[in-house]
Design a protein that fits this description.
Blueprint: H1 4-25, H2 33-56, H3 66-72, H4 75-90, H5 95-104, H6 112-125, H7 142-156
């Protein structure tokens, strides 16, 4: 595939599908929980790298940190992503979040940047779960983050919808 932005998008979508499958199966086999979230984190990273490539026509190779990727995007795109995420969160049933916060005694971030920071930690720290991270890592809102990224990418490149 010669269209690099599209190819990154297609690969991100594949990791997303794998993550959703693993997360569903983790209801039966808890051993698939972390691999599902690592795949979700990789999907988020690749969606950001696709968006970055579409905007700048070059690869982002500085790190795996989603917040770095987000901060490198033009401010108008950052604003659109933050607004879209806030709208989704404002209209979302948060009972699962409240339940998780009560059980874990941790506060789950409700802003996009806080979630990007947490998800980038998932990719780097959770894939080595045996090293036991000393801090809880929030792994919420993957579908919401995926939606805003896919929406922005397909707004810039409507041909990717097919």
């Amino acid at each position: 595939m010669d269209d690099r932005g599209k190819y990154i998008f297609v690969v991100a979508s594949s990791y997303s599908r794998a993550a959703k499958h693993l997360n569903q199966e983790s209801q039966v086999d808890i051993g698939l929980y972390v691999p599902g979230h690592v795949n979700a984190a990789l999907a988020i990273e690749l969606y950001f790298k696709s968006l970055y490539y579409i905007v700048y026509k070059k690869d982002f190779r500085h790190s795996h940190d989603f917040l770095d990727l987000f901060n490198e995007l033009p401010s108008d795109i950052q604003d659109k992503l933050e607004s879209a995420f806030s709208r989704i969160i404002d209209n979302r049933d948060m009972s699962d979040v409240s339940k998780i916060e009560a059980g874990s005694k941790e506060t789950i971030p409700l802003d996009l940047k806080g979630n990007l920071d947490s998800w980038s930690s998932v990719f780097v720290k959770m894939r080595y779960i045996y090293d036991k991270p000393n801090k809880a890592i929030s792994m919420m809102f993957f579908p919401e983050i995926e939606k805003i990224l896919r929406d922005e990418i397909t707004t810039l490149r409507p041909d990717l919808l097919s």
